[in-house]
Amino acid sequence: MKVEKCLQENVVVLSPEEGIKEAAATFSANRIWAAPVLDKDRRVVGILSITDILNTFSPDFLSILKNVDFIKDYGALDLTIKDVEELAKLKVSDVMTKDVISIKKGGDLVVAISLMKKHGFRTLPVLDDGKLLGLVTTIDICRRFLEIWEGKTKGEK
User: Fold this and answer.
1) Buried-most residue among 7, 47, 56, 140 (CB within 10 A)?
2) Which residues pair with 127 in a beta bridge?
3) Three-class secondary structure of residue 25 per DSSP
4) Domains in the chain, please, with CATH?
């Protein structure tokens, strides 16, 4: 099965110059967890995810810990008003993932799933010559497999 069968073509996009606070509000308003970042020529220059945003609010060492139960004073991890004010100055380009992993429209879904698992993503941009065609997400793929299992597609394998 090909990626084009699961492609979301109408997607929310961000600008590299957009503020991180505005990007977070866009995610919340649109109930999405990632968005491609496009330059003035509509070329993909990055992708921003909820995880990227959350990582800006958490100490670097948290990513190497399996749990934080040993920390008795969680206040040591609290954000101050000053921290929040500094974070609000960040732009999408400061936080986004710049080395974008993508797939082509004619790519196999198995390859898309493999890329997502390998890199820990739930969303892949679908590109053609650097231009965004849309996104494929784990939800889109699951929905497509469910349609096939339920026999809602005719003549597909």
Assistant:
1) 47
2) 132
3) helix
4) 3-149 (3.10.580.10)
